[in-house]
Design a protein that fits this description.
By secondary structure, this protein is an alpha+beta fold. It contains 13 helices and 17 strands. The protein has 2 domains: 7-104 and 441-466 and 483-538, no CATH class; 112-326, no CATH class.
Amino acid sequence: MIQAISLIRFFTLLAAIGTLAACGGSSGGSSSGSSSSSGTIFSGEDLEGGAVSAVTVASDNSATINFGMVSNSTEYVVAIYNYSEDGSTEAYEVGSSLSSLNPKAMLGKALMAENMTEDFHEMLRQDEASLDLEALRTNSKSGSKALMSAAAMKAATVGDQRTFKVLNSLSSSSTTTITAEVVHISDYCIVYMDTRDTSSLSAADLSTIFENVDERMPDQIARFGSLPDVDENGKALCVFTREVNELGGSGGIVTGYFHAINEFPTSVYSQSNDADMIVGAIPDPSGSFGVAISKSFMMNNIYQGLIFHELQHAQNFNNHYLVNDGDLEYSFLNEGLSHLSEDIQYDMSTAGIENYSRVSGYLESIDSLCITCGASLYQRGGIYLLLRYLYEQAEKGNLPNATSGDDLINRLTDTTNTSVENIIRAAYGDSVSVDGQFRALMGQFGLAVFLSGTGLSDNDQLNFDGIDLRGAADDNRGTVLQGPGINSLSSFPTTSTVANSSISYVELTGEQINELSGTVSIQLGDSAEAGIYLIQTGL
């Protein structure tokens, strides 16, 4: 049973969240909103009817919740949120000695294809971090020039051919040289097809893909910034080849990539193509070059967001390196922003079609996935969801430093800040503690992830508008989002862990609480920098 949450309690809770935002969180091992040393909240009857409470964590990282005797049918969820700069996973114990959790949802879900994709994109970002940036700043022809549109000089005509060096390995920057032909020219892109693959997409297919790109690209530029335009043609090169399909082989699929080495003159790096360039896979219904993937799925799912996703990487590179003379953005945030850019095709009003499955995987394994530690598909689902949450909060006027969602994206991309600091400075400004504020954000985000779509709250800080976290997604994959995975306790006491930058949800039933005589203790690890919320879900 789901019970509506008291608005009075929510206003009190949100005031506490606001206090955390103002002071940047606590400076000790926990991020509780109270200075009490007892680590105890007295709940009992005042929680009946549904409520959310911030649980005070004592200086020894312990907390005790005194419920009193409750109805056996009452249900609660404890939400433990964790963030520390060192990225550590933290243990917690419900009770007084070791036991184990019985997860309701599959935790630690990992697929070979997901790990393959993570490794590939990590290789790209690490390779980019090792490039001689000063050489590019010195030799770039037009480092901060905005991408031109109708007035752009066309660098090629349909039917022209040229060679490209494209990656042929998931783990190194080795390349294969292909010959590709110009098959389409749009306002923003010159489209090349590997001459071996020209029949894989028709002229009508290409028009469909790139008419959508031309329609949405002005919004992409306004939000994420300009492209480097190192080849001074005002357009990006979009190269489609079977070589991308072959990167994954039979173990998975890479749908496309941006590699910053192509922005450099060939005199600096011989592997470069000296162009603003992204590379994409082709339809392969028979699986001749890797995992079988139909043209209809590529057209309806992959190509819908691929161009925007990969061009965001190019824009991010330009903003950080050439415009602002800064450092490479961390891979997790760079990928999260690219997934957020996929929402542009829906005017940012709802999630891009391929984002639902990534979010679903994240929710299933939410307490074991650190969203600031890597860029696997499901970690990307998590950082995307956090950025989606912040975008919506900015649109609602709930962020102190971003006047709108577009302003938030501008601040995240046109900057020298990187990583978690970039997120906090863009959303909350320069006066807050980065670690404390991000920890508080993870707590509020965790509440929204749990409560959104339940009907428990109509507060706009605790709900998503553009993605239903508890419903079927119309994504041609059969994805059904069921909210976050919740751990149920098979016995007391019990111990588990919560990853960095994540949330662990633990169910407590009224029957279990009464077996413990109405008092439940929680012990966090000695070095944990975590916080706790208690949510009543029903009577």
